[in-house]
Amino acid sequence: MSANLEIVDLSDFENRKSELAAQVLHAASSNGFFYVTNHGLSPAEIENQFSLGERYFSLPDDVKESRGFRPDIFAGTRSLSDTNAAVGTKSWEQYLVQLGSHSRNEQGRWLAEDVLPHFREQTVPFAEKANQIAVQLLSLFEEELKLEPGFFAWQLDVDAKDCLTTFGWNRYPDPKQQGLRTDQLRLLPHADTDIITLLFQRPGEGGLEILPGRDATVHASTDPSGKDKGGLNSAWTGGIPEGKWTRMDPIAGAITVNIGNMLMRYSDEKLKSTYHRVRGPLPGETLGERRSMVLFVNGRGSTVIQGKDKAYTALTVADMVAANGKGYENVKRDKEWQTRAMQFDAETSARPAAVVAA
Ligand SMILES: O=C(O)CCC(=O)C(=O)O
Ligand SMILES: [Fe+2]
């Protein structure tokens, strides 16, 4: 059965908090994915941010790779050859940089100013605005999670010394140009590790799909491989989730939002960290290049994540980020897993039952 997808209109936020809290709680505890509109970032600001990504992607590979991927902080360059090593196709590349005034260029994985002039100075304010949207959204969960009012504003402070929030750009090359088989995914099924993710997609560049009901915990507990206890980094190990996937297509002006494993753990699994993937072309369909941008909201690395009911063991944000990085490096050794993970069967892809106002 395919899902109803919900659009949450954030206009007049301050006066509509209780109504909005009910809406986001419903969306986060069912699909774990929803759209937000009237969030305060203009189409021009978002397009400008995509164009900064273009400047990065058009650099020569060796320059991009000079800020190689650091699994411990889950930031840096995942080039086409790096993802090829991890999933066996050159279907995706990603660049992740750390926010926070504390992270020097190299540690935060920023390329030098002479390589990408004014790149950091334009990206940080955009990402900080996006981070404020995340603060607003998360404040709506504080009462339900029995957290102090203002907790997430504190946790998400990008000036904190241990801030691990990252901003990133994804590029999925034209599968045809890359010589990719049509029965392969462009991004493998995974659940995000963070508290919440803000995803920017462009109309006409679809492909994202979600598997409602299959979250990181459900997956881990039913995975016969038993490799991923507690849904810690199920993104990168163990069984491959299967079922009918729902297309989460781009909507003009909307940001796509999803709950990550940290918030799932914080909420003792009330809020769902749902599996998602980016699909390959359906029969008769040609997919060109796809771009997306992400804000992986982790916040302060030293904060201990545990819900009031203690459904999961206590782990810090930094532990969870590093575990995800380790999992990613592990899959490079498992070619058989890679082939299975990247399999795409058009039969598994469905349109949403409806896209509705929350
Ligand atoms: O490009 C997309 O739509 C999905 C990206 C994603 O899931 C991720 O970067 O974690
Ligand atoms: Fe993701």
UniProtKB/TrEMBL annotation:
Q: Name one Pfam family in it.
A: 2OG-FeII_Oxy
What molecular function does GO assign, one term? oxidoreductase activity
Q: Which residues does the UniProt record annotate as the domain Fe2OG dioxygenase? A: 163-299
**Protease as a keyword?**
no
Signal peptide range equals none
PROSITE patterns for this protein:
FE2OG_OXY
Q: Where is this region: Disordered?
A: 216-235
- Transmembrane portions of the chain: none
Q: Which UniProt keywords apply?
A: Iron, Metal-binding, Oxidoreductase
Q: Fetch the PANTHER family from UniProt.
A: 2-OXOGLUTARATE (2OG) AND FE(II)-DEPENDENT OXYGENASE SUPERFAMILY PROTEIN-RELATED (PTHR47990)
Q: Which family is it part of?
A: Belongs to the iron/ascorbate-dependent oxidoreductase family.
Question: What's this protein's name?
Answer: Fe2OG dioxygenase domain-containing protein
Species per Swiss-Prot/TrEMBL record: Symbiochloris irregularis
* Highest classification ranks of the organism: Eukaryota, Viridiplantae, Chlorophyta, core chlorophytes, Trebouxiophyceae
